[in-house]
Amino acid sequence: LIQTSLDIAQKSDGTFDISMGALNRVWDFYSDHPIVPDKKEILLSLEKVGYKNIQLKNNRVFLKNPELILDMGGIAKGFIVDRGVEVLQEAGITSGIIEAGGDLTIFGQHPFRENWRIGIRHPRSKEGELFGEISTKAKCIATSGDYERFFIKNGKRYHHILNPKTGYPEEKSVSVTIIAESGLLADGFATAIFVLGPVRGLNLIEKLE
């Protein structure tokens, strides 16, 4: 999981970074009463962020910066749904969908149709209206959006997808959906592309298999 995270970080110019634990704690989007942190707090937390400070050797993790805090929240769900499919298949189940908060893995053949149909939620609809639909065979799909965890302060939306270079929520994207061969890759790249934005994000996608 950590090795894949570091690979995605490297390919995305660090826009996906599992070393953002200190920054995420400063923002605390899980609080019942979240607030915009002081700029000084954000700058101090950024000193504890940087995926290049994470090293893997012989299946052990070393942190060059002892204050760095790992946070796997941006990729763990993809790993979990992948593992869930393995468990179901080991139990003899041949097809289905495992979904976890915007991340899903489809496996096997749909029982009634040639393809599975997956709806993409409209990022600004309060009624669950769909923005579009994907028709696909077995695939992994992940969506990152600014509408899952957010709060409004003085008319401005602050959401949980933070840019690890600025320390603030990234505003170039509203919702990004990625289709990949594994939930792990779909989840990680959905966050990375969200932060990169439409232009740089699509340029990166075009370079990947």
Portion of residues in beta strands equals 15-25%
Summarize the helix and strand pattern as letters: HHHEEHEEEEEEEEHH
Query: What percentage of residues falls in helices of 4 or more residues?
Result: 25-40%
Number of helices: 6
Structural class: alpha+beta
> What does the overall shape look like?
globular
The major pleated sheet works out as: 4 strands, antiparallel
pLDDT under 50 segments (min length 5)?
none
Strand order of the largest sheet: 3-4-7-10
| End-to-end C-alpha gap | 20 Å
The counted number of beta strands is 10
Radius of gyration: 18 Å
Mean pLDDT: 95
Describe this structure in words.
The chain has 209 residues and is an alpha+beta fold. It is 31% helix and 24% strand. Strands 3-4-7-10 form a four-stranded antiparallel beta sheet, with helices on one face. It is globular and about 55 Å long. It starts with a helix and ends with a helix. The mean pLDDT is 95.
Secondary-structure blueprint:
Layout: H1 2-11, H2 21-27, H3 39-46, E1 54-57, E2 60-63, H4 76-90, E3 96-100, E4 103-107, E5 116-121, E6 130-136, E7 140-145, E8 150-153, E9 156-159, E10 175-180, H5 183-196, H6 198-207
Antiparallel strand pairs: 1-2, 3-4, 4-7, 5-6, 7-10, 8-9
Helix pairs in contact: 1-5, 2-3, 4-5, 5-6
Output the keywords.
globular; two-stranded antiparallel ribbon; single chain; four-stranded antiparallel beta sheet; alpha+beta; 209 residues
Summary of the model, kept short:
By secondary structure, this protein is α+β, with helices and mostly antiparallel strands.
